[in-house]
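Protein in question passed on here:
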Amino acid sequence: MEYLIDKLAQEFNIRPKQVQDTVELIDAGNTIPFIARYRKEVTGNLSDVLLRDLDARLNYLRKLQKRKEEIAGSVEEQGKLTPELAAAIDKAATLQEAEDLYLPYKQKKKTRASVAKEKGLEPLANKIYLQLDTEADLAEDAKNYINPEKGVETAEDALQGAMDIIAETISDNADYRKKIRRMVTEKGAVKSTVTKAFAEEKTEFENYYDYGEPVKKIANHRVLALNRGEKRKVLAVKIIDPAEEIRTYLKKSILRDKASSYLVSAIEDSYKRLIFPSIEREIRTELKEKAEKSAIKMFALNLKKLLLQPPFKDKTTMGFDPAFRTGCKIAVLDPMGKLLDTATVYPTEPKNEVAKSEKILLGMIEKYKVDIISIGNGTASRESEQFVAEMLKKTDRPVQYIVVNEAGASVYSASELGAEEYPDINVSLRGAISIAGRLQDPLSDLVKIDPKHIGVGQYQHDVNQKELEKVLDDTVEDAVNNVGVNINRASVSLLKHVAGVNKTIAKNIIDYREQNGKFGSRKEIKKVKGLGAKAFEQCAGFLRIDDGDNILDNTGVHPESYKAVQNLLKSMGLTTADLEADKLAETVTRLNALDVKATAAMLEIGEPTLRDIIKELKKPGRDPRDSAPKPHLKSDVLSIEDLKPDMELVGTVRNVIDFGAFVDIGVHQDGLVHISQISDRYISHPTDVLSVGDVVTVKVLSVDVERKRIGLSMLI
């Protein structure tokens, strides 16, 4: 354990004590959001991002340690564990290094070498490998191993079997493999060519029909693109190795003065048949894992930004799900997200019932006092936007509209959850509810949808799904707990992501609420079936009650700190009543004047905890999303055909990827700002400058109507 602590401390550049205390918190079953928010004194104020990275690395190192112990135990059982080998296994820094050391001792399936050993050819192989005899002596000696009963018909058969044994021995050498792996990584190249079946066809992989790039330089997104092309049998992908240099290295390492042609042939065979195919698989796997890790990380970053988009609070919202033939689906939600009404209208092709549709929607706008219309960006979005823009000229209500990313709405509408939440609503109308909901409260709505369907990732269906789900679940958990959840309004979908709360407990919270009415205090949460002391400790600070008896219940202050808050207010001659809106300004002024260090010592709490308490007391019930810029309200109605080079437009960043960002500029297709067009200074990655939800001004560089591609620039 001490070794793990020291290694993690070194890797993360933090104190061993921080690592030890953090690991103890994790091992005790504490959630990352809880540790990050309420155990800052223990961790030394480590962020949730660093804590997750540390947790992942801890799991890897523990897995590595366990595997090294298994390997050492297996070799020892064979009676072959030397002090030198034991030390090498203990020193192995990666699973790959450990497995390389284990390779000579690993139980293998039948191989050419194992068959040769069964034929009794190992002594001959040793003679050839030791290079003590001349080639003529070896040829003569080989005759002694002829044994038709064992399948050794000739001296040549004996020599071939001996060379097979030598080839595997060389291949199993950990030092050789490590060196060769490094040489291929440093000097090899990834090469792709089009397969015969697609040689005459245009596909999305055209750029890779004849493509090569050094292994050490290839970008992660290109690795994933090549792998996808290979999976679809459009591309053939291989590693081009510095073969001659590697062969020279092996020969220099193995051959001596009396080396025979048999040994030279065995070396050639070992590299061509055993070593390189294995190394090629390892390198491609390593490239794939690295690329997947990058893609998952990028997906998680985009998802978090999307989930934390500011809500349009206190707005009666009309969700507008565009379509042609089947009609546009409409849903109106009150400011609390309650469904008020639904409709289906046909203002687009082929029916073009514009006047009738206007009458229906204007009636709903007036009846329910609609504030804003949320239009999905799918099929018929542009036509629907034009219709809405013209319609709103015919009402005196100050109604605004916005086009939102509808990705995942159809998935929700057909899901079990959608049916459970709106059993009496037609499946086609549930998409409009989702489109309205994600504008009112993106977090509450989007948690109902599998993150893979939200549309902010790249190659999400090509990466390791287990790893993807784990990271995305963590991302949703961090976002939910960062914002906090109103326990009296939250759905199961939202509650289950609160620290310490699983799906069963979330359902029990809903059941309790339905049976007993609203929660009046955080203390009451303890009455929920299945929610024990540990779960309460983890979740209490993240659950909010906005109309309870205690104003602290609507803050991020944990109940364990309520006494400290009371003592703080008492020392200032204040009470919780001074946190009410009419007295808050004066209270904030006094809180700002506090000597944090002295006050923390007086209250016997840590300074980070006190700073968090003060932050919460300054704005009870605050929503951290309120400080973020709201999505861009649209006014221009354009199609891709309307776009011309040098046009300047305002758009919203929809997705950030390794090589750029996709920006919604008011047409159905998002435009691409390549990384080279983002900034006039060097940036290593688009995330250095951009995030999902950013509102940016762009210039049109190119428009390809046929391929529906738009090139944009932020260099204006």
